[in-house]
Design goal:
Strand order of the largest sheet of chain A: 3-2-1-4-5-6
Helix content of chain A: 40-55%
Largest interface: A-B, 91 and 91 residues
Structural class of chain A: alpha/beta
Order of helices and strands of chain A: HEHEHEEHEHEEEHEHHHHHH
Distance between the termini of chain A: 30 Å
Oligomer: homodimer
Largest sheet of chain A: 6 strands, parallel
Radius of gyration of chain A: 22 Å
Shape of chain A: globular
Chain lengths: ~325, ~325
């Protein structure tokens, strides 16, 4: 490592992050670690997870320098950590926040990669809130920090880079390249903490933006959570048929793409659906109203109405494809 | 052409088809022509279509040796044609069958590539039925032909190889390679006519099977027509919102794959949805019942129920992916 680092010294200064703790060393957490390492933006990555075999893969793949299973005393690693990323299924985040709160160092910034944000923020307020020690006076980051117990180093985030694959073996240092990463800071999040998280994602190749948490949850209920639920539902109801194999036998590439999301991790998506249930149910209701309209067009054999519906969809999707970075692999 | 044909004489005998007429020179019709030519399985391809500019592309791309627009006297081409493929949107097939019936040659076999089969067969019975001249006695194909006016050279078909692209420019001689092609012969379809169509698709690289037409329509309502309708509906209801751009801005690869079918040709899918409306509405109803169950799980925050639903879907989809040829590009 010494020689390449020396050669790139002009372009890449000393790692901006000393120690990063990644809890949940799967597709997202593992890719975050790999990308930071590829950018020489971190000195040490500590991985924490539930499965010893996945953690072993993570070490072998160069994702983590050392690892701990969640039942070990891994929170001792937090005292001198610059950043901790919670990249577990989102349902585990409240308990993790409660667990880490008393162990955080004076300059440790906390972020997450959950697909829902209001529930994570509520948990952050509950468990970190006043418990978070203020930045230590005299610490390099403390200069412009807002004072008061509410000043938080909690920066909720959501990288738009999931795939249906999971586990450390699916991780890639290129996963976030040119991908949108959304931060939904709290009112009390310090600018310094937010910058540290934004810089880390930028180093990973991401394009960082911010969004209000409630709006985030509304939007992702529509463009991500609902499509996942719809894909799971389609395959589940086919699979439940006595003659399911007759159907699957003739399913082809259209079915494959429509149902790709149904190969996603069930535990992750249970947590997302429950964490954002209100917005998801609202979207499900809007969608069912659209299916009512579609069914009415079929009943009345309204060809012009079907063409209009399909054309509106096609025009909108093609315009989106042409103009949006995140549409493309 | 003479030299390559001579060199490959052992592998590829003289083209088995003299003249093939393709009506609708788009993705499917164009790819059929290109694949037959690549296999040296046809001497002459005549293309028929609505758009002069698309036909011009078809000639330039080597899809058709000559072309006619549908308003010209193209049916004169049928008298000495070995095969005519109707590859238009399926709603045009009844009128086309009525148009070609009196112009067919004594040995012309008729097939189609429509995604619905019972409606095509009903139109075939109506327009071809007794109107179809019997195979000419003494014609090479006549040897084992069943006798009677109902003996038909109509072989309905459905290649499982659509994409969301359309037009001659999207055609490829590899589109059908290793793809399932379903034939749904009528009881009165002659074995010789069926073999001619099966051989043509085999020459294109397809893997030919047969299915009863009603079963075909049930199965494809579930694995193809419903997913198309659902994808169109999702994008259409998003696009209709005043703040649609806020949503599309954050849509990513999951949304892209889920909605790929919504970029399909609206006219083609109007025809499919109307042509198979009964089976499609039955599938839509079954799907809405599954969405009821999903919503009930959300209301009761039943995490175990959600996991069970998602896991059933994931296991079924992954088993399908692992075992089915048509799952892969």
């Amino acid at each position: 490592m010494a020689t390449p680092n020396a050669v790139k010294a002009d372009a890449v200064p000393a790692p901006s992050l000393g120690k990063v703790v990644v809890v949940g060393v799967g597709l997202i957490g593992g890719s975050f670690a790999l990308a930071l390492k590829a950018a020489a933006a971190v000195a040490t990555v500590v991985g924490v997870g539930r499965s010893a075999s996945n953690l072993s893969s993570a070490r072998q793949l160069g994702i983590a320098d050392r690892t701990w299973t969640q039942d070990q005393r891994w929170t001792d690693e937090l005292i001198d950590a610059d950043l901790v990323l919670l990249a577990t299924p989102v349902g585990q985040i409240p308990a993790l926040l409660a667990l880490i709160a008393p162990a955080l160092g004076a300059a440790t910034v906390v972020t997450d990669a959950g697909s829902t944000k209001q529930d994570v923020i509520a948990a952050g307020r509950r468990h970190l809130g006043a418990a978070l020690p203020r930045f230590v006076p005299g610490h390099p980051l403390a200069g412009t920090e807002r004072s008061g117990a509410a000043a938080a180093r909690f920066v909720p985030g959501h990288p738009l880079a999931g795939t249906e694959r999971s586990g450390a073996a699916a991780a890639s240092d290129a996963l976030f390249r040119d991908r949108t990463v959304i931060l939904t800071p709290l009112a009390e999040t310090s600018a310094e903490a937010q910058k540290r998280v934004a810089d880390a994602w930028t180093a990973c190749g991401g394009v960082v933006g911010t969004l209000e948490a409630a709006r985030h949850d509304e939007i992702f209920a529509a463009v991500s959570h609902l499509p996942h639920a719809l894909a799971f539902a389609l395959v589940a109801q086919l699979a439940a048929r006595a003659d399911a194999l007759d159907y699957f036998r003739y399913a082809a590439t259209g079915f494959r793409d429509f149902t790709r999301l149904a190969s996603s991790d069930p535990e992750m998506w249970r947590d997302v659906c429950l964490g954002n249930a209100t917005a998801l149910r609202r979207e499900l209701s809007a969608y069912r109203a659209e299916l009512d309209r579609l069914d009415a067009l079929l009943v009345s054999a309204d060809g012009d109405g079907l063409i209009a519906l399909f054309e509106r969809a096609r025009v909108a999707r093609n315009a989106w494809l042409a103009h949006h970075r995140d549409a493309n692999d």
